[in-house]
Design brief:
By secondary structure, this protein is of the alpha/beta class. Helix content is 41%, strand content 18%. The chain contains 8 helices and 9 strands.
């Protein structure tokens, strides 16, 4: 019996970002509930092909998609500007939703904008800055489908991606230094969701989200 190929939400989003709207399957694929949701949401066509190996290209690491949304309140403006320049130099496409200066503003406005871009699939990841990394995460996590994680070191960033499939990184501009922020962002962008038992646990969270 051949091993079944697990197709997750990440693989579906990868195809979407590449401009593809159809998937050829060969009978040995197993789609996660989150993957099925994205297929329905974006109207992906599924074509069954006989006697061929799978044509779904899963080889490209997802961090190479290189499209990131950035947002911050006034306390995180300087850190956002720094990481925007840092990621731009590495070839990332940046969508900056503001704020655009250090005048006092409300963090929910920008967390909502970043969360919306991630939810709609317009970017692969979001990064938000505020003073502590806590209030923006609380806000973003009110958006269905968002898994925002406040990370304070490289280990928490790696775990948030590998175990929790977090799609928004939230950082405290007043609690972390510039080089630590860069290091956390690098780990985040170069870590991938491991699936398996972690997907089972996320499915339980999704069910809870759908029931409330």
């Amino acid at each position: 019996m051949s091993k079944r190929k697990l197709i997750t939400e990440k693989e579906i989003l990868d195809l979407i970002y590449k401009g593809k709207r159809k998937i050829e399957i060969f009978g040995n694929e197993l789609f996660t509930p989150a993957a099925k949701d994205k297929i329905a949401e974006f109207g992906i066509k599924i074509l069954e092909v006989k006697n061929h190996s799978s044509s779904i290209d899963l080889s490209e690491p997802f961090y190479k998609l290189k499209k990131v949304a950035l947002g911050s309140d006034h306390t995180g403006f300087s850190s956002k500007k720094m990481i925007s320049n840092y990621l731009s130099d590495q070839g990332y496409e940046i969508i900056d939703v503001g704020t655009n200066d250090e005048n006092s503003c409300d963090y929910p406005d920008f967390a909502i904008k970043v969360g919306g871009l991630v939810k709609r699939g317009e970017v692969y990841f979001g990064i938000i800055f505020d003073a502590t990394g806590i209030p923006s995460a609380i806000t973003a996590n009110k958006i269905k489908g968002i898994r925002a994680a406040t990370c304070y070191n490289e280990f928490s960033a790696k775990s948030a991606r590998e175990h929790n499939n977090a799609n928004i990184l939230v950082l405290g501009a007043k609690t972390l230094g510039e080089e630590t922020i860069k290091s956390i962002v690098n780990v985040w962008l170069n870590s991938e969701f491991l699936g398996d038992r972690h997907q089972r646990r996320l499915d339980k969270i999704t069910n809870l989200e759908n029931d409330n």
